[in-house]
Structures are given as structure tokens and as C-alpha cells.
Specification:
about 75% helix; mainly alpha
Length: about 450
């Protein structure tokens, strides 16, 4: 009875418009208090665990890296590096059919690996690239789809915030998860580029070349080189130190913050105002993340103590007779939830339940984690509530209709699902850090 009330109460609060963190946190706190008052002997200890859980969250060495990576990304975003990159690459590749779209994907990769912040990346690329592409005659649906999809690459390309969160929830090392995400990231980016090339070959009117007003390609190449090499060096320092085991994620993130500050100084964009804006944006973002985490922790603590995890396990055991069927069902649940709720809520509320069942089925957690990461990335594009769609629409106003944006992201959702299926069918595409060392020798 108490378990049913907990679930009904949390859903009711969500339907009333209460933010997820407070809906689940309040539900857990109210039901937990009720159990302590009216079933004291059995549940007297329940909420005494909560302060210890919260303290554990705040002192978690893995999660400490999250604010640092966010701060690093905010500094790079505020420094104007994205604008310079997009303008330079547009000059370099824009003169060929589909070149601007491929250039946008390239910038998305670079920004994903250096900032990892989806919202900022989508807004920046939307405001700069979309007007240029539409003026050149690019199809509006294709333009919206390319920018929205490229902006979400920060969800799967290290140092992705979602990978760090998954490493904590699934109890996998950040190093292993970052390493395992390399090949899937390359596969996904490759799919995007192949799609654009096919469009450019068979339907060139959808992605025409930009008017070539820059005759001196040598100067443009030098400009692109100067703009891209510094962030690439920063990426190699941060990710390389983690992948090679030289530094923990928190240490690497701290170095990344210092590197981002140095880059902003080199680009002559560093100021007290930039530091203030980046700090405020980081605090707001981190506050949201940790509020959801604390609320979800309170909910799952009470949920598990009431035997909710056993109820879910019994349900899966009754209807799913193999680990593969469990994974398929889990991916379906996550994909459907991605239409309506944010990936943070899925990570902190749904995954703690699914991860326990995955361990029961003896599923490879590294494989499971990457499948979840790719699936969650898809949630940023799925209508009607895909966050990337809203970020893009807010940046461009009436330049592209919301219906055209929805239509534009569909091919890229299909490509992401294709990658998800390939990773499911070929688990060897996901390599651990030990495999990485054996293959590449470091």
C-alpha cells in the first residue's frame, strides 16, 4: 500500500507541474516520515540514512568533476571560440555541395569534446550557421536537422557529462566509459557525414555550395588551423590524461578549466565579466543536476526499503527470460521516457532500478552503459520535448518553423537508432580501457 501511495504521489506532483527534483524528493520525504512515525520499529533508521547519502553525493570523487567540466565548457562557450570556428570552417568547406553541413558536424565534434554542453552548443551553432546556410539555399529541414544533431554530440563524445553521471550510477570507472564511447562516437559522426554526402550527391539542391567569395584558400586553411589546434590540444590534454590513467577525472577537469582560461586569454576574450557569466551559468546548471540527484536519492531510498526494487525484478523475471530481452525492453523504456522527461531524471530515477536488474541478469555493465548513453542522446532530438529542438527554436525565432525542425531531425534520430542497433548486435565495438591499451600500446 505504501509503495503504491509513493508512486501515485510522485506522479500526481509531476502532473501538477512540480519540478522533478522536488516531486520525487517530497514524495520520498513524506512517505519516509510517515513510515518512521507509524511504523517506527521497522523504519526508524530510514531517513537517518538520507544525510549520509547526501554527504556521500557531495564528496563523491567522480561527481566532483561535473562542476569543473561544466565550468570549463562555459568559459569556452563565453570566449567566442565557436563563432570563430564556424566562420572559418564555412569559408573553407562552404564552396562544395554539402560542405557547410559537414563543417557544422566537424565543429559539433570539436565543441562536444571541449565543452560537452549541449544547450550552449546548439544555440551558438543555430545563431551563426543557420542564417548562412539558408541564405545559401540549404533546405530548411536539413539545416535544422544537421545543427540540432551536431549540437547533441556532447552527450556521447567524452568528456560528456552524461558519461560521468552514468559512471557513478552504474558503478563503472569514468576512464572505462570514456574509452568505450570512442568507437560509438566515431561511428555516429561517420553516419552523419555519410548521410550528408549522399544528400549532396543525389539531391544537391538541398545542400548547395556557398558562394565562394574567398579566393585565397591558403589563408583560410591557416586561419582554421590556428583556430582548431588550441582546443584540440586542450582536448588531448584532458582526455588523454584520463584515458592513459595519468589523472583522475577531477584532476583532468581542473586542468581543463585552467586550459580554457588560458585559451580565452590567448583569444583576447578573457574578462571579469566572462568569468562572472561562466560562474553563474555553471552554478545554475550544477544546482539543477544536484537537486535532481538529491531528490532522486530520497525517492529511491524509500522505494527500495518498501521493496520496490524486488517488485520490479519480479516483474522482469516473470516476462523476460534472458538478458538480451531485458536490454531490449530497457532500451525501449528509456527511448519512450526520452520523449517526455530530461536525461537527468532518467539517470537518477530510472537507471538505479534498471542497473540492479542488469546485475541480476549478469549484463556487461560497460556495454549496457554505452547503449544507455546513445539512447539518451536520442532523447535530445525526439519531438515534442527534445531539448535540442527547443534550444534551436529559441535561437532562430521564426526563421524555421517548428514543424520543419521536427521533420529535419527525423533522419538523424533514425541514424542514432541505427547506431544503437549496431552496438547491440556487435558488442565488440565497445572496448574497455584495457583493450584500448592492448590495441594502441598506451
Amino acid at each position: 500500500m505504501e509503495l503504491s501511495f509513493l508512486i501515485i504521489l510522485s506522479i500526481s506532483l509531476l502532473l501538477l507541474g512540480v519540478p522533478v527534483a522536488f516531486a520525487f524528493g517530497a514524495s520520498g520525504l513524506l512517505v519516509g516520515t510517515y513510515l518512521m512515525v507509524f511504523n517506527g520499529d521497522e523504519f526508524a533508521y530510514l531517513l537517518t540514512f538520507l544525510p549520509n547519502r547526501i554527504d556521500g553525493i557531495m564528496s563523491n570523487q567522480t561527481l566532483i568533476s561535473v562542476p569543473l567540466f561544466i565550468f570549463m565548457g562555459m568559459i569556452l562557450e563565453k570566449s567566442g571560440i565557436a563563432e570563430r570556428l564556424i566562420e572559418s570552417i564555412a569559408k573553407l568547406f562552404g564552396s562544395i555541395s554539402g560542405g557547410m553541413a559537414i563543417g557544422v558536424i566537424g565543429v559539433g565534434v570539436l565543441l562536444a569534446a571541449s565543452t560537452g554542453i549541449v544547450g550552449a552548443t546548439v544555440v551558438m551553432m543555430s545563431a551563426i550557421a543557420i542564417p548562412v546556410m539558408i541564405k545559401a539555399g540549404y533546405n530548411k529541414k536539413l539545416t535544422a536537422g544537421v545543427v540540432a544533431a551536431s549540437g547533441t554530440l556532447g552527450q556521447i563524445i567524452p568528456p560528456s557529462i552524461i558519461l560521468i553521471i552514468l559512471s557513478d550510477v552504474l558503478r563503472i570507472s569514468v576512464r572505462d566509459l570514456f574509452t568505450a564511447a570512442i568507437l560509438p562516437s566515431i561511428l555516429l559522426v561517420g553516419m552523419y557525414i555519410i548521410f550528408i554526402i549522399v544528400i549532396a550527391i543525389f539531391m544537391p539542391h538541398l545542400a548547395p555550395p556557398l558562394r565562394d567569395e574567398n579566393k585565397n584558400k591558403k589563408d583560410i586553411i591557416i586561419e582554421v588551423f590556428k583556430m582548431s589546434i588550441p582546443p584540440i590540444i586542450l582536448i588531448l590534454l584532458v582526455l588523454g590524461s584520463i584515458l592513459n590513467g595519468f589523472a583522475e577525472p577531477t584532476e583532468a577537469a581542473a586542468v581543463g578549466v585552467l586550459g580554457a582560461v588560458i585559451l580565452s586569454i590567448c583569444y583576447k576574450s578573457f574578462s571579469i565579466k566572462l568569468l562572472k557569466e561562466a560562474s553563474i551559468a555553471s552554478v545554475i546548471f550544477c544546482g539543477m543536476v544536484f537537486a535532481i540527484l538529491i531528490g532522486a536519492t530520497c525517492f529511491t531510498l524509500v522505494f527500495n526499503e518498501l521493496g520496490g526494487d524486488k517488485v520490479v525484478l519480479d516483474f522482469f523475471s516473470s516476462y523476460l527470460d534472458s538478458p538480451l530481452s531485458f536490454i531490449i525492453f530497457s532500451m525501449l523504456i528509456i527511448f519512450i521516457l526520452g520523449f517526455f522527461i530530461d536525461f537527468f531524471e532518467i539517470c537518477y530515477i530510472v537507471l538505479p532500478i534498471l542497473s540492479g536488474i542488469a546485475m541480476h541478469y549478469q549484463v556487461d555493465m560497460l556495454w549496457f552503459g554505452i547503449l544507455i548513453a546513445v539512447n539518451l542522446q536520442t532523447s535530445f532530438l525526439t519531438p515534442p520535448f527534445g531539448f535540442s529542438i527547443f534550444f534551436l527554436k529559441s535561437a532562430i525565432g521564426d526563421l524555421i518553423s517548428i514543424v520543419d525542425i521536427y521533420k529535419g531531425v527525423i533522419p538523424f534520430i533514425a541514424l542514432q537508432l541505427l547506431v544503437l542497433i549496431l552496438l547491440f548486435l556487435f558488442p565488440d565495438l565497445i572496448i574497455s580501457s584495457d583493450d584500448f591499451e592492448r590495441i594502441f600500446g598506451f
